[in-house]
Specification:
Layout (H helix, E strand, L loop, with lengths): L2 E3 L1 H5 L7 E13 L3 E8 L2 E8 L5 H8 L6 E10 L6 E12 L11 H7 L5 H5 L1 H4 L3 H23 L3 E2 L5 E2 L10 E5 L2 E5 L4 H11 L1 E9 L12 E10 L3 H22 L1 H6 L4 H9 L4 E3 H10 L12 H8 L6 E4 L22 E6 L4 E8 L4 H11 L7 H8 L5 E7 H9 L20
Parallel strand pairs: 1-2, 4-6, 7-11, 13-14
Antiparallel strand pairs: 2-3, 2-5, 3-4, 5-6, 8-10, 9-10, 11-12, 12-17, 14-15, 15-16, 16-17
Helix pairs in contact: 6-8, 6-15, 8-10
Bound molecules: 4-amino-1,4-dioxobutan-2-aminium adenosine-5'-monophosphate and magnesium ion.
Length: about 450
């Protein structure tokens, strides 16, 4: 029996002339009633299989000739070098259809539906997301996403961070009440967490360097190009560190993600139209720091209406970052613009010691973080001035009553990083089953 290989193994040229078995899905077929050309796809690539009447038995010829697009098949044959599209083809000696497609309901994601879809944006493709996942564009996105997740784990684990899990059902907001998802909880109310942070701070005196990759939830009512209601959040927290140290980690993490993509996903990125030199630049450059006030002045000089004290929304970040060649940190936001946990700057308490990292090319915020308010007195002052009830945060205040230390951390939206580095128009393109205000299906 012939040995089974991935198509990718064949395409690198190490099985020339060998008789092999391949398993996959029918991507395209054409030909006559004497010779059929079947392009087979698996997760590693695609290859043309040539099925000649007479070279295979009639039953096999009829079965493979009749296989509809996206049927699964198993074929055996000899690997032949060609000067056609894939460089190799398979001269089939036998094969069969494993999972047939019913001719009454052919695979709905046709090339014309894709052409209209402009990057997966039509409702039709979103309704058929479970089938759209196997298209070449989504396959590339999912591989890029996997590399990004791997790079985040490697970055933190290589530096002795401990992976730590927080609950997803919580009693209070982290990032303000307006985007909280409320869930009935046995006669009481609970919320889906917006961030791992507050519970990570509880473990900060135990572990000192901790991180996670977990989903976070935000009831974002409007559908935008960069908001999901369920997104994947890489977060970290360190003891004995302030805004500067945390920013250094954020910069180094993003650079190492870009480097991993260049090393592992050059083909996928190029096929999506990304300029690899630009991604390499994101991996090699220092990321400049700019204060919030300077960003406001820059925006005002571009004619954007913005008042001091407002957080920057997407439309403003888009304008600000359009001319950036590399990501930039914005630091020292006004205290009124940020939640209670941000530490006021001792040198000028109108501001907090925080940062957002804004990706270039108009993508905007990918990281939010900073130094935490860490004494009991300061945290109570911040909670009260925000008008937030103390009760859900008693545990959080307690952490400051027993050996509080300076500490800080950040959260990075993984889906946003994937969108930026892959050049996607919309965050939805980067996640298998996107969730937004109008969609929890499929
Ligand atoms: O800036 P945010 O709200 O900060 C926090 O949640 C902090 N508690 C993090 C921390 O310090 N540990 O969110 C962090 C990042 C944003 O910069 C953005 O990249 C991403 O999370 N993000 C979203 N991504 C997709 N869809 C949404 N609705 C998002 N909201 C935030
Ligand atoms: Mg933010």
């Amino acid at each position: 029996m012939a040995k089974q290989y991935w198509i990718g193994d064949i395409l690198v040229g190490s099985h020339d002339e060998e008789v092999v078995e391949l398993c996959g899905w029918v991507h395209r077929t054409r030909g006559s009633n004497k010779i059929r050309f079947l392009v087979l796809r698996d997760s590693t690539g695609s290859l043309q299989c040539v099925i000649k009447k007479g070279a295979v038995d009639d039953e096999c010829f009829d079965a493979l000739s009749g296989a509809l697009i996206e049927s699964s098949v198993r074929v055996t044959g000899q690997v032949i070098r060609t000067d056609r599209e894939h460089g190799y083809e398979l001269s089939v000696s036998t094969g069969n259809v494993v999972g047939a497609v019913n001719p009454d309901s052919p695979f709905p994601i046709t090339e014309s539906a894709m052409a209209e879809a402009d990057g997966g944006e039509t409702e039709f493709l979103l309704d058929n997301r479970h089938l759209y996942l196997r298209t070449s564009r989504m396959t590339k996105m999912l591989k890029i996403r996997s590399t990004v997740f791997g790079a985040v784990h490697s970055y933190f684990r290589d530096r002795d961070f401990i992976e730590y899990q927080a609950p997803n059902f919580v009693a209070g907001a982290v990032e303000g009440g307006s985007t909280l998802f409320e869930v009935p909880y046995f006669g009481k109310k609970a919320y889906l967490t917006q961030s791992w942070q507050l519970y990570a701070e509880a473990a900060m005196p135990a572990l000192e360097r901790l991180y996670t990759i977990a989903p976070s939830f935000r009831a974002e009512k409007s559908r935008t190009r960069r908001h999901l209601t369920e997104f994947w959040h890489a977060e970290m927290e360190i003891a004995w560190g302030g805004n500067q140290e945390v920013m250094e980690h954020g910069e180094a993490l993003v650079r190492s993600i870009a480097q991993s993509l260049v090393e592992e996903r050059e083909d996928e990125l190029s096929e999506l139209g990304r300029d690899i030199d630009m991604i390499q630049k994101y991996a090699d450059s220092k990321y400049p720091r700019m204060r919030y006030d300077e960003a406001v002045e820059t925006l005002q000089s571009k004619g954007v209406e913005i008042e001091w004290g407002q957080d920057l929304d997407y439309s403003k970040e888009k304008i600000l970052t359009q001319d950036f060649e590399v990501p930039h940190f914005l630091t020292h936001y006004p205290r009124v613009a940020k939640p209670f946990y941000h530490r006021p700057d001792p040198e000028d308490p109108k501001y907090v010691l925080c940062h957002d990292l804004l990706a270039p090319e108009g993508y905007g915020e990918i990281i939010g973080g900073g130094e935490r308010t860490w004494s009991e007195k300061e945290i109570l002052e911040r909670i009260d001035e925000e008008g937030t009830p103390r009760e859900p945060y008693e545990f959080y205040i307690d952490i400051r009553r027993y050996g509080g230390v300076p500490h800080g951390g950040f959260g990075m939206g993984i889906d946003r990083v994937c969108a930026w580095l892959s050049g996607a128009d919309h965050i939805r393109e980067t996640i298998p089953f996107p969730r937004d205000s109008r969609r929890v299906t499929p």
